[in-house]
Amino acid sequence: MNTNPASLDTIINEVLHHTQTDPHKRASGLSDFILGAQDGLVNVLGVVLGIAAATHDVRVVLVAGLATTFAESISMGAVAFTTTLADADLYQSEREREYRHIHEAPNIETKEIRDIYESKGFRGELLEHIVETITANKDVWVAVMMAEEHQLAPVDRKTAFRAAWIVGLSAIVGSLVPIAPFLFLSVATSMWLSVLVTALVLFGIGAYKARVTIGRPLRSGFEMMLIGTISAMAGYLVGVLLKVPPLP
Predict the structure, then answer these.
(1) Helix (H) or strand (E) holding 214
(2) Domain residues of the chain, as ranges?
(3) Confidence at residue 29, expressed as pLDDT on a 0 to 100 scale
(4) Which residues contact 56 (CB under 8 A, 6 or more apart)?
(5) Distance separating alpha carbons of residues 80 and 86, to the nearest angstrom
(6) What's the pLDDT tens digit per position in 137-162?
(7) What is residue 157's DSSP assignment?
(8) Burial tier of 193 (Cβ tally within 10 Å: 0-12, 13-18, 19+)
(9) 50, 144, 131, 150: which is closest to 90 by C-alpha?
(10) pTM, whole model, 2 decimals?
(11) Which three-class secondary structure string do you get for 184-207?
(12) 4 or 79: which carries more pLDDT confidence?
């Protein structure tokens, strides 16, 4: 076994690698941003394409697009808020249930701990030592059951407001992308430009997600672009089928 202390240069290089070159990814609201932005992009693109195909009236397209934008952002923010609270309530209710089970059925709960760590390959005295150590502290016991048996992580209720703001604002930003061309160009030109710009933004979001998490940026970008664009085309088809005749 090598007991020689590491050199100062080695320690510095390891610290730089651990903290800068390849740091752990902390919770950053990435999923909330992707949820809001993707939803705004796809839904509003579908609306403006459908309205544009049905009416060819830029004013109607803008009114429908902006109405959808703000209704969508408020709705998505509210969903993010209530979903986060629901996750927090679920964790708390299951945590309290585990405390009751430990009090009322300790033998069953002890066996569950033993089964969990036995499935991980621990055997004999080491397994019994792990079980004894965990079950000696009820808080540790419950924390292990929550993570290992229920696959649940604690949720801070305060993050509900943060999630709502991120989802709501990203939905607004995403929604404005397919609307923007209709502010400056004809309806026919704006429709195709809106599809193109939205597809590129979706590709960028997908690629960025893969870069900061895991996966292939090109593949992830194309997947998000393809799924989002095909979904939005449903709005266009509805507009074509229900085309409104021009006013006399």
Answers:
(1) none
(2) 29-241
(3) 66
(4) 187, 188, 246
(5) 10
(6) 888 888 888 888 888 887 777 788 88
(7) T
(8) middle
(9) 150
(10) 0.66
(11) CCCHHHHHHHHHHHHHHHHHHHHH
(12) 79
